[in-house]
Amino acid sequence: MKYALLIAVFLWASKPTFSQEHATCDDAIPISTSSYGPITPEGWADSSLCTPDNPNMYFGKSHMVVWLSFIVPYDTVLTFQIVPENPTDDFDFILFKSDRGDFCQKEKQRKIQPVRTNFAKPPSHSLGITGLSENASNLFVPPGNNYPYSAALPVKKGEWYYLAVDNYISDKGGFTLKLPLQFSANKNPISTIDAAPIKAPAAEIPASPNFYIHVLDSVNHPVKANLIIEGAQKNKSVKVDTADYSLRLEKFQSLTIRANAKGYMPYQSAYSGTEDTSTVTFWVHLVPIKSSQKITLKDIQFKEDSPIIIPASEPALDYILQFLLKNPNVSIIIKGYANDPNHTQSEKYDQNLSEQRTNAVKNYLSSHGIDKNRMKCIGYGSSQMIYPHPTTKEQQAANRRVEIEIQ
């Protein structure tokens, strides 16, 4: 009985996190290391991978699988090795190239065919190893006593692939995937992957990166986004359009990471560094835009009792600006709130102040190219404080906020 395993790989050097339950294409795992494993397949394969009528292209029976996917970081000739823990195991594989559309659905409907397969029984002297090799010539290798390697595959930067691996032996043995890449077109791979056909602008990448950012959608497909990273460089924001970015993070260095992509809600999160400077992989998961969703702009700050925005708020304003620029059909409601738990000011004063602050945000956005007709302002005064009785400066700041709601 065969046990199938599909592997998704981001070609980046960082610590692997293994999973044994990602048994469908939709649940594919992005891997962040050039040597991943050992992996032991446990999930059932879907029937789209199995047919006895086409033994060169698909598995003959239904098996157990794990799915992963990878993005090619530079033009090269793709090779890899599948190395069993038990040399008597017999691994087969299927390699797909994604068209960046709804790949998983198309694959299930058999609308996308493999680009490489190998179902050979490896000879004993090979220790059960199979994969892609520049010494092989066949693209598709059928079952039997055949050569355990298929021909290496010329690939381009930004292309996206899925790899399926199946253990023919019933012992459920594991394996390690190794990527001994043989560079042909570019022997000096860069650290930033442009995951979309449009070339990303160049960005300054520090030497010896140890912090890797990957932007994905809800099913782990890479998404090219406008990244704004605060804290990576002194007194300077890093801005780049890409799906993957790397940088050097020193001890106790902290980052604010914002991302915007067409069709997706804006993303904002923070990372606090520690004394440990070993490799970190940071996943940015974007979700589709939906009406009535809210975005709280935590870093918008005003002068006390004033609608004047202080300069430190510019990164947060730029964050929402980039969202609106990338999504020109989206209209928003800018909501303002005041912090006045003890009602030291009149209700009218709080109301006017909250309205003035929303208009200050609107004016900033309109001065940078956003049509005023796409923005509506509403002030709520101090009527909807998150903390009615704040005890810290942080709670007071949370009350004194601006929110964006998608119309």
Can you describe what's shown?
- The chain has 407 residues and is mainly β.
- It has 3 domains: 3-178, Jelly Rolls (Sandwich), CATH 2.60.120; 211-285, Immunoglobulin-like, CATH 2.60.40; 294-406, OmpA-like domain (60s Ribosomal Protein L30, Chain: A), CATH 3.30.1330.60.
- The protein contains 4 helices and 27 strands.
- Strands 1, 2, 6, 9, 10, 12 and 15 form a 7-stranded mixed β-sheet that branches.
- Helix 3 (347-367) links the parallel strand 25 and strand 26 (375-379).
- Mean pLDDT is 78; it is low at 1-20 and 182-206.
CATH class (first level) name of the largest domain: Mainly Beta
Number of helices: 4
Strand element count: 27
Arithmetic mean of pLDDT? 78
Distance between the termini: 54 Å
Rg, Å, rounded: 26 Å
Largest sheet: 7 strands, mixed
CATH topological fold name of the largest domain: Jelly Rolls
So what's the overall shape? elongated
Named CATH architecture of the largest domain: Sandwich
Q: Which band does the percent of strand residues land in?
A: 25-35%
- The percent range for helix content is 10-25%
Give the total of domains.
3
Which helices and strands appear, and what pairs or packs with what?
Blueprint: E1 3-7, E2 29-30, E3 35-39, E4 43-44, E5 64-65, E6 68-71, E7 76-78, E8 80-84, E9 91-97, H1 103-108, E10 116-120, E11 130-133, E12 140-144, E13 149-151, E14 153-155, E15 160-167, E16 175-178, E17 211-216, E18 225-233, E19 236-242, E20 244-247, E21 254-260, E22 267-272, E23 280-285, E24 294-297, H2 314-326, E25 332-336, H3 347-367, E26 375-379, H4 393-399, E27 402-406
Parallel strand pairs: 2-6, 10-12, 11-13, 17-23, 25-26
Antiparallel strand pairs: 1-15, 3-16, 4-5, 6-15, 7-14, 8-11, 8-16, 9-10, 9-15, 17-20, 18-19, 18-21, 21-22, 24-27, 25-27
